[in-house]
Amino acid sequence: MREVNTEMEPKLVDAQGLLEALFDEDSRPSLRWVRQMQGQRRIPYVKMGNLVRFNVNAVRIAIEENCTVSQR
């Protein structure tokens, strides 16, 4: 059986937990924003039955790749 190291492996969080993990309270977007990004498939998510969860590290990478505007 595989031994799980919880410090190294990312946790799955709900949409509110994702916002709290990624953004400062003063600059936090709404839950609606998360759902729009999810619906456009711009951020990765895991669907387990009717539950939707997010890997914070994977979403952070996706936001950096898909939402960052580079200099001209």
List keywords for this structure.
single chain, 72 residues, alpha+beta, 3 strands
Describe the structure.
By secondary structure, the chain is an alpha+beta fold. It has one domain. 39% of the residues lie in helices and 14% in strands. The chain contains three helices and three strands; from the N terminus they run βααββα. β2 and β3 form a beta hairpin. The longest helix has 11 residues. The protein is globular. The model has no long low-confidence stretch (mean pLDDT 89).
Helical stretch tally: 3
Largest sheet: 3 strands, antiparallel
What is the 3D shape?
A: globular
Helix content: 25-40%
Number of strands: 3
Distance between the termini: 51 Å
Q: Low-confidence parts lasting 5 or more residues at pLDDT below 50? A: none
SSE pattern, N- to C-terminal: EHHEEH
Taken as a percent bin, the fraction of beta residues is: 5-15%
Report Rg. Answer: 14 Å
